[in-house]
Amino acid sequence: MAATYDSLRALSRQTMKKLLDVQEWRKFLAFASRSFKLPFPAQVLAYAQRPDAAALMKSSDWEAVYGRPVKKGCHGVPVPEGRGKKLVYYYDIADTRETDESRPVPLWHVRPENQKGIGKALESYLGKLEDASGFAETLLAAARKTVACTLDDRLDDLAAHSPGSLLEELDSDNLLAAYRTMIENSVGYMLLSRCGLDPSPHFIDEDFYGLLDFNTPSTLTILGSAVTETAAMCLSVIAKAVRRMQAAPAEAERAPAVPKPALLQPVPEKRYTLQGGWELAVVGSDAESILYSFIDLPEQEPVPVSRKDFDQWLAAGFIQPAPAAIPA
What we know:
The chain is α+β, with helices and mostly antiparallel strands. The chain folds into three domains: 1-99, no CATH class; 111-254, no CATH class; 257-321. The chain is 46% helix and 13% strand. The chain has ten helices and eight strands. The protein has helices at 5-18, 22-34, 40-49, 59-66, 115-126, 135-150, 155-161, 172-194, 217-254, 307-316, and strands at 56-58, 77-80, 87-92, 265-274, 279-285, 289-294, 303-306, 319-321. Strands 7-6-5-4-8 form a five-stranded antiparallel beta sheet. It has a three-stranded antiparallel beta sheet with strand order 1-3-2. A hairpin with a 4-residue loop joins strand 4 and strand 5. Helix 2 crosses helix 8 (172-194). The longest helix is centred in the last third of the chain and has 38 residues, at 217-254.
């Protein structure tokens, strides 16, 4: 039976009730760490319908960005969009097919050799972290610091919606404490999960018992939105760092016929901006190849890529010429 706006609202309410169970909340956090670009209400419905999804996007985005059309017969995840009753459909990467025009999908997984670079990227973004003694400690410290920077954003909204929930019984100080604890623990759990670490040694069920106080749709939505949006700030930094660190070896394996950097002729440096803000510089070229380096990674060897692929990156908007520097 085709989904309707009313049936999806009912499914959302049913799923929100399930999320008040601590174990179900932890499963949801692991899912949300893989779909952190979706807003919380969409994540709830996606979790209810496709909890195993690896990467969800609209069909138009799959085709426009990655050249991957949706397979015939695949059913997407319907989600209401905006304030009206319009439905949009999200598809997992497994629902799409590769074509001659397909471009690599930047799914990322943290490898042990990436952990140090992730720590540096997080400290570059957040400043010095209070505890960076290990990778898990770095992620948890990043979660706490990010929460501290964003905690007040929804607090007034939460206080206004607390009547009717168990939060209503708390004074302002205890409301803040309950809210902060739940966000910190939930964001930390998401970061550990997405980075391939087992969160179990760092969290027990009691760490999430405060969830039970957010027992109305409005208070749980405020909490869930704060959690996923705060986690997304860190996960976006982590994703960029991992993709950047893994780009060179992946490109080298994919195109072994490209000449070694030493064979390419030096050219006047020309800079480009990647999606997400990173910069690269073209430092060499010949008739068939381009040699580029990352501005923020001067210690990394320049990376060769075919001119065809480089032109495809430009056409797809993955890279754009950087604005000219303004003379001092």
